[in-house]
């Protein structure tokens, strides 16, 4: 099994974010992939998306700005099925690769 960790530091938002110049909270974000050929290929594509700033966004939540997942779907749990962003989900790798 592959476990990806994204450490997003707290900082100030930039032009194009909901409230430019305002501080926002970061956090640790985990994603899970099967440790096989397709999972490793997907991990490389997710890395490229992250490097291009496509993985996260800043959103207002209860009066504060915080980092949240963007539009690329990630599996954030090993279980719970598709409804809980987990496995089993036979279509996930195909779907995420289409988005990427």
TrEMBL record:
Record's catalysed reaction(s): S-ubiquitinyl-[E2 ubiquitin-conjugating enzyme]-L-cysteine + [acceptor protein]-L-lysine = [E2 ubiquitin-conjugating enzyme]-L-cysteine + N(6)-ubiquitinyl-[acceptor protein]-L-lysine
Coiled coil: none
Domain Deltex C-terminal positions: 5-97
GO biological process: Notch signaling pathway; protein ubiquitination
Keywords: Cytoplasm, Ligase, Metal-binding, Transferase, Zinc, Zinc-finger
Main location, first listed in the record: cytoplasm
InterPro entries per the UniProt record, alphabetical: Deltex_C, Deltex_C_sf, Deltex_fam
Gene3D superfamilies with a match to the protein in the record: 3.30.390.130
Top EC class, one word: transferase
PANTHER family: DELTEX-RELATED
Entry protein name: E3 ubiquitin-protein ligase
This protein's encoding gene: Dtx3l_1
Assigned protein family: Belongs to the Deltex family.
Any single GO CC term annotated in Swiss-Prot or TrEMBL for this entry: cytoplasm
GO molecular function: ligase activity; ubiquitin protein ligase activity; zinc ion binding
Subcellular location: Cytoplasm
């Amino acid at each position: 099994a592959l476990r990806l960790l994204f450490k997003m530091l707290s900082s100030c938002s930039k032009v194009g974010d909901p409230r430019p110049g305002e501080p926002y909270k970061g956090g640790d974000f985990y994603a899970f992939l099967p440790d096989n050929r397709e999972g490793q290929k997907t991990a490389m594509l997710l890395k490229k998306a992250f490097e291009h700033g496509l993985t996260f966004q800043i959103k207002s939540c209860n009066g504060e700005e915080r980092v949240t997942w963007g539009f690329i779907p990630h599996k954030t749990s090993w279980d719970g099925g598709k409804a809980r962003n987990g496995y089993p989900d036979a279509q996930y790798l195909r779907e995420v690769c289409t988005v990427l």
